[in-house]
Design brief:
Blueprint (H helix, E strand, L loop, with lengths): L5 E4 L2 H13 L5 E3 L2 H15 L17 H10 L5 H10 L2 H17 L5 E4 H4 L4 E6 L18 H10 L3 E6 L4 H10 L1
Parallel strand pairs: 1-3, 1-4, 2-3, 4-5
Helix pairs in contact: 2-5
């Protein structure tokens, strides 16, 4: 699709990363995500970067002693939920990210954008003319024998994402998953 009207992603961090990329190109999207959750993650990481170790088991950085520990963990665990947010913070300061989030949250209420970015969870019940589904969904890329190719819950979430288009759907970023499914049959 040359110009999607919506991008559907798995995570808030992927949505925010894409939003920043579009903003840098002069396009301000409508962002339909869990603003509170992503803002909280950024603040928790910012606190750890400033030397405050969290005691809250709910924190995305619980158990880490430093920002360096988080980065090292992500290097060795490429499929971690932290990977996308850590990569985003490597490119933008937490303050910059929080500022963009604040701006986009205000923008989403004005509904003036021609492009929507949303998570699969938030897309339930919504429809868009032209949808591009990004490839950040979790599946067994390594082909580990004792694991299914895709967990049931993740498959259902991907199904939701792939059924939001009215006219056109671009799933090219999911090609590696579909290629693997094709080999199984």
């Amino acid at each position: 699709i040359a110009s999607p009207t919506a991008y559907i992603v798995r995570t808030n961090a992927t949505a925010l990363t894409l939003a920043i990329e579009l903003i840098n190109k002069g396009i301000t999207p409508t962002l339909v995500i869990d603003y509170q959750s992503i803002s909280q993650q950024v603040r928790e990481i910012q606190e750890l970067m400033n030397g405050t170790i969290t005691e809250s088991r709910r924190s995305c950085v619980y158990g880490f002693q430093s920002w360096g520990d988080v980065q090292e963990y992500v290097e060795h665990s490429a499929n971690s939920d932290l990977t996308i947010i850590v990569n985003l913070i490597k490119k933008n300061t937490p303050d910059e990210i929080l500022s963009v989030l604040n701006h986009l949250m205000k923008q989403s209420h004005s509904n003036q954008s021609q492009i929507t970015i949303t998570t699969a969870h938030k897309s339930k019940g919504l429809e868009f003319k032209k949808v591009k589904v990004l490839g950040d969904f979790m599946w067994n890329e390594e082909g580990e024998k004792d694991k299914p190719l895709i967990e049931d819950a993740e498959g259902r979430l991907l199904y939701v994402a792939c059924t939001r288009a009215i006219d056109q759907m671009d799933i090219t970023e999911l090609h590696p998953l579909f290629e693997k499914i094709n080999k199984i049959k």
